[in-house]
Design brief:
The complex is a heterodimer of chains A (about 475) and B (about 220). Chain A has about 475 residues and is an all-alpha fold. In chain A, about 80% of the residues lie in helices and about 0% in strands. Chain A has a two-stranded antiparallel sheet. Chain B is mainly α and about 220 residues long. Chain B is about 80% helix and about 0% strand. Chain B is built from 8 helices and no strands. Classes of the chains: A mainly alpha (about 475), B mainly alpha (about 220). Chains A and B meet through α5, α6, α8 and α9 of A and α5, α6, α7 and α8 of B.
């Protein structure tokens, strides 16, 4: 029942938000609903970490440790993003750029977007999972184009067209997996439930599975933002309102990655680890290379953050390629750590954009002295993103690298280190330009309200704490990793 | 398959699906392209109907009716209105010209036969042998999206991709489970509706449905 409640709460909140004219109180209702999702996710996680898998609706919904972990991730970043959405919408209405009706639509779509992501990770059936991931695409298209400018319209068009093609390939891959399952022994029992696919994975036709997994990597990889189907990502993340960018970059990419992890476990069974590994290493390294190239001369700080997401998705692909339980546990910790750091950075970038009126790096200087609180949060967020200790990204990147060396992917790990070093240097140089320097004569330092800073600081503290103490997440991470790796 | 008649009906209908895909590359008038897409949708639905009757599968027959209504009638009607609203509804300067596109379509069909060899080997039925036609339709859809400049052409390309996948799904598995089929059809319908909304907004902002207008965002 709890699994169902986790889905129904944000859906119902979305209906209420859509029906009532927008007020601040309605905005907070949206935050409360995602807070309830987070609480539900934590309870589910506590229940499945040592206990049996929870199912509802005869297996349509299925919660194992991996699903529960993803619900926690979605809930955490969701609370942050919906919290900042209230302020974003108030500012848009006050500035005359948006109407109350438009704001209601935004609030409802964000709830719908989060519901769709939750369905994707709670679905026990890979077909339903596909439907949910496709639904996130359709919903977020409106959110990307929310500002209604030429640029945002262009971004939403590209986003929908490219992701629809990608997700269509993922559907074909799913159909082929189903076809392979139909031709294993007992015809009538074949279905798209993940558990039954895993049960027969060793007997699936390798030729068909090879084609299917390639299509799935290309297809879900499009939504993850892996090269070569990444070109929508910087446009969409750059143009969407900041809270939406935070959700897309912090969780939507990794929800698609979660789908890849599920299929990788099936492909591992049918083909052995070699073939999935080759595809994921190739996708990961090419994504890292593209991100490095685009970051060196980047002129826009929101696009900079978007390309950095591509970098981190590349690292996740390499970690998943290694595929040992240690590697997958590190991948999942990285999913949460990246979500927190990138969520904070996108939300801060929204505040900076609102205050400075431009997203060009060259036009924004000396944030630390001009807007100390905002500048400091952005700076610390960047430090977390770059993988410095004590933040959890340090631990997860180190563990992924260790796993890559253990399984003989040391060469890929070494190449990734070089590319990460290039990205590190570019981000540091852009960050220095944005943050350091002296304020112009006569300009007073401006404070940022606590309603903005407190949740962001809280998220950064959480990210740091996760890097220092594994508890209480350690057990969940290992249980979740064992779902898809052995 | 219950008899040779089913096989030849399937061959004919699958052939129509592929021919319609080629027609969208051949014709420049957007309204002709949308009509070809409608015919393709009806043929696709008929494939599901024939298979449903052959397997005595009521669900598949219902899905077939649904496909005929959605892809044969509703979506072409939606797109037809966009085309009617566009002052210049012809693909005047495609990125790849028409003769070269037709050559590419032939090459892609060969490629489809190569790529699907393991799938065809697994499904030794009359329907299974037609799977490459679905793949060819899908590849032609990708090509159409890359080689055309009009926004509507990208939508029709996407629909070709989707119809190709649906044909593969019907022929290979006699339809995926109903819940997934319904969800997938609904999602595609929504995506097309949203694309149509965007296309209308773009016409009012840019003055034309030409993708060359989309050059605001770059690094």
């Amino acid at each position: 029942m709890l699994a169902l409640a986790v889905l129904v709460v944000p859906f119902a909140a979305g209906v209420v938000v859509a029906a009532v004219p927008w007020r601040r109180g309605i905005g907070w209702l949206g935050t409360a609903s995602i807070g309830a999702v987070l609480a539900g996710g934590i309870v589910l996680a506590a229940r499945v970490v040592h206990g049996p898998v929870v199912t509802a609706f005869g297996g349509v919904l299925r919660v194992d440790a991996l699903s529960a972990f993803m619900v926690v991730v979605i809930g955490t970043i969701g609370v942050l993003a919906t919290w900042q959405s209230v302020r974003y919408l108030s500012a848009e209405i006050a500035g005359g750029r948006s109407s109350r009706r438009h704001a209601s639509l935004y609030g409802a779509l964000v709830q719908g977007f989060i519901t769709a992501m939750l369905l994707a990770v709670l679905a026990g059936n890979v077909g339903v999972m596909w439907v949910a991931v496709e639904a996130t695409t359709v919903i977020t298209t409106f959110l990307v184009g929310f500002r209604g400018t030429r640029g945002s319209l262009e971004a939403s068009w590209k986003y929908l067209v490219i992701c629809s093609v990608g997700i269509a390939m993922a559907f074909l891959g799913t159909v082929l997996v189903y076809l392979a399952a139909l031709h294993v022994g007992h015809h009538q029992h074949a279905n798209l439930d993940w558990t039954s696919l895993m049960a027969v994975s060793r007997h699936l036709d390798p030729g068909v599975l090879r084609l299917a997994f390639a299509l799935l990597v290309l297809g879900y990889g499009t939504k993850v933002g892996l090269a070569p189907m990444h070109s929508w990502l910087p446009d969409a993340h750059g143009q969407a309102p900041a809270p939406v960018s935070a959700l897309m970059s912090g969780v939507l990419l990794t929800v698609a990655f979660y789908a890849l992890l599920r299929f990788k476990a099936i492909a591992d069974g049918a083909l052995g680890p070699a073939f999935p590994r080759v595809l994921l290493v190739a996708a990961g390294l090419v994504s890292l290379a593209v991100a490095a190239t685009m970051l060196v001369a980047q002129r826009d700080y929101k696009r900079m953050l978007a390309y950095s997401s591509m970098e981190h998705m590349g690292l996740l692909a390499l970690g998943a390629a290694a595929g040992t339980p240690l590697a997958i546990a590190a991948v999942l910790l990285h999913v949460l750590g990246h979500g927190l750091a990138k969520g904070v950075l996108f939300l801060t970038s929204g505040e900076i954009l609102a205050a400075e009126g431009t997203s060009e790096i060259a036009q924004v200087k000396a944030l630390l002295s001009r807007r100390p609180a905002l500048g400091a949060i952005f700076g610390v967020g960047l430090v977390a993103l770059l993988g410095f200790p004590p933040f959890s990204l340090f631990v997860s990147e180190l563990n992924m690298l260790r796993a890559e060396f253990q399984v003989g992917l040391g060469w890929a790990g070494a190449i990734s280190l070089v590319l990460v070093a290039v990205i590190f240097a570019s981000l540091v140089s852009h960050g220095r330009h944005l943050l350091l320097g002296a304020a112009p004569e006569g300009e007073e330092a401006r404070a940022t309200p606590a309603v903005v800073t407190v949740p962001l600081i809280g998220a950064l503290l959480l990210c740091a704490a996760l890097g220092v103490v594994a508890w209480p997440l350690g057990g969940l991470l290992h249980a979740a990793a064992r779902v898809v790796a052995r | 398959m219950s008899g040779p008649a089913d096989g030849s009906a399937l061959e004919l209908l699958s052939g129509v699906v592929l021919v319609c895909a080629v027609v969208t590359l051949w014709r420049r008038s957007l309204s002709a392209i949308v009509k070809a897409l409608g015919v393709q949708g009806v043929a696709l639905g008929a494939v599901a109907l024939v298979l449903g009757v052959a397997h005595d599968d009521g669900v598949l027959i219902a899905v077939g009716c649904l496909v005929v209504m959605a892809k044969g009638l509703a979506i072409p009607a939606l797109l037809g209105r966009v085309v009617a609203g566009d002052p210049d509804s012809r693909e005047t300067a495609p990125v790849v010209n028409v003769p070269a596109s037709l050559v590419a379509a032939g090459a892609l069909t060969f490629l489809a036969y190569g790529a699907t060899a393991p799938v065809v080997a697994l499904v030794p039925t009359a329907a299974g042998r037609l799977i490459p036609l679905g793949f060819a339709t899908l590849l032609i859809g990708f090509f159409a999206m890359a080689a055309r400049r009009k926004a509507v052409s990208q939508i029709t390309g996407l629909l070709l991709v989707d119809n190709g996948i649906a044909l593969v799904a019907f022929l290979a598995t006699a339809g995926v489970p109903l819940l997934v089929e319904l969800g997938a059809s609904l999602d595609v319908l929504l995506a097309v509706v949203v694309l149509r909304v965007l296309a209308v907004r773009m016409t009012s902002k840019f003055g034309a449905l030409d993708l060359d207008q989309l050059r605001e965002l770059h690094d």
